[in-house]
Amino acid sequence: MKQISSRFSMAVHILSMITLDPIYSTGDRIARSINSNPVVIRRIMAQLKKAGYIETKPGVAGASLRVSPERITLLDIFQAVDSVEGNQLFNFHKDTDPNCSVGMNIESVLLPQLSNAQKVMEHELASVTLAQIVEQIRNQANVK
């Protein structure tokens, strides 16, 4: 099964680091923590900034949250960095054979199930906040 882009998990990682230690949450430090290229991290941070979740200042190390971690859900983060075309997580193949009973009906038959799966995923992501994720990280790492 094809995976959803890792931008989402990277964005949660970035926001968690900023929540825990904003002064030292530079693009380079975050990139080392994630084991990714700093350019990739800066692009994701730009998406988070555009969505209004973080603030960065030229020439100043670190980043800060613009929204309380209690008010940022995993769904918010997902939507900020993994834009879904037409708000549909699942895509359909195009130009099916209109003379084939499967080709002319597959989308209308399958769409309700896929839409339901997306709603369930979105509901689950909306039920978890960044604050809850950070608290779990603190508990597992004994970070105060």
What key phrases describe this protein's structure?
mainly alpha, 144 residues, 53% helix, 6 helices
Kindly estimate the percentage of residues that lie in beta strands according to DSSP. Answer: under 5%
- Terminal CA distance: 38 Å
Question: Any idea what the shape is?
Answer: elongated
- Listing every helix as H and every strand as E from the N terminus to the C terminus, the arrangement reads HHHEEHHH
Class derived from helix and strand content: mainly alpha
Provide mean pLDDT, rounded.
90
Helix content: 40-55%
Q: Using the CA coordinates, give the radius of gyration.
A: 19 Å
Secondary structure topology:
Elements: H1 7-20, H2 27-34, H3 38-50, E1 54-56, E2 63-65, H4 74-81, H5 106-126, H6 130-141
Antiparallel strand pairs: 1-2
What does this structure look like?
By secondary structure, the protein is mainly α. 53% of the residues lie in helices and 4% in strands. It has helices at residues 7-20, 27-34, 38-50, 74-81, 106-126, 130-141; strands at residues 54-56, 63-65. The chain has a two-stranded antiparallel sheet with strand order 1-2. Strand 1 and strand 2 (63-65) form a beta hairpin. Helix 1 packs across helix 3 and helix 2 crosses helix 3 (38-50). The chain is elongated and about 60 Å long. The mean pLDDT is 90.
Brief write-up:
With 144 residues, the protein is mostly helical. It has helices spanning 7-20, 27-34, 38-50, 74-81, 106-126, 130-141; strands at 54-56, 63-65. Helix 1 crosses helix 4 (74-81) and helix 4 packs across helix 5.
